[in-house]
Design brief:
Elements: H1 6-12, H2 21-26, H3 30-33, H4 37-50, H5 62-83, H6 88-95, H7 100-114, H8 123-137, H9 147-151, H10 157-175, H11 181-225, H12 236-244, H13 247-261, H14 277-290
Amino acid sequence: MAGFGLSQALGLIAGSPLSKAGSVIAEKLPVTKSMGLGGIGGMLSQVLNDGNLSSIMQNPVAAIAGQVQAQVQGAVAQVQAALGGAGAGLVSALSGAGGIGEAVGALKAAGDHLSGLGADPQGFFDLVAHGNMAGMLGADAPSAMSYDRAAAPITSGPVLAETGVLVDDTVRQVLIGSMPADAAATIIQQRADMLRGIAADSADALARGQAAAPLLGIASAIGGALAVPSSMQPTPIQGVLATLVQPQAREAMDEAVRSSLGAGAGAHVDVGRPLSVLSALLRKIRGEREG
């Protein structure tokens, strides 16, 4: 298992060390202390013995995915028994390469990755990091990078349940003669393409987040670094940074800091929520361009 990359590390700390203040508080809580190595040693030992996270993590859609795959196999047997070679196209859409059985498997595999159960357990951290990156942007996050899009493989239970119903109903109509086999094959194939799209969209959203992490981290860190407590004078580094940041960006950063910490508050004390520098900055720039 490889170590953390820059994009993943920045994502896990929400782009800026300043936003870790909340975790510092959490680490002081008694319940957190009770989860020290001594308290979970047995669990960690099991993880080491297994060589994976299967003893503590789960893919929430694994069960329904397995159920749908079983339905697909049952449908294939029914079609072959009733139609023989005439049902070859439908059988292919059900269980052939690129068919719905394969698509369900791909979606489950994507969910395994996000659940830490894939070939690389760090897939779970990919999802956490992406959530932090999307959270930094808030309502300004591009839809293609949204957390919902990234997490869709592990929230696709309802879609998979609908898929199982679709398979059963479509095959039933073929068997009773109310739908041609080729029309049924088209319906099944379209659903297979949709399921593959969910997995592909998730991978795309994660990749976009990883690519954006360094830039977002730098911009967020600059906003926090420029925050000067009311009782202090700017440091030499802050003085230099102030000359590097464009005026409209500095104004947005200052507004975000004041909004998060309160006017006159120290910039380096624990806060209840992380700075939303990026969101304010993007809204500011977007508003000026639209105006």
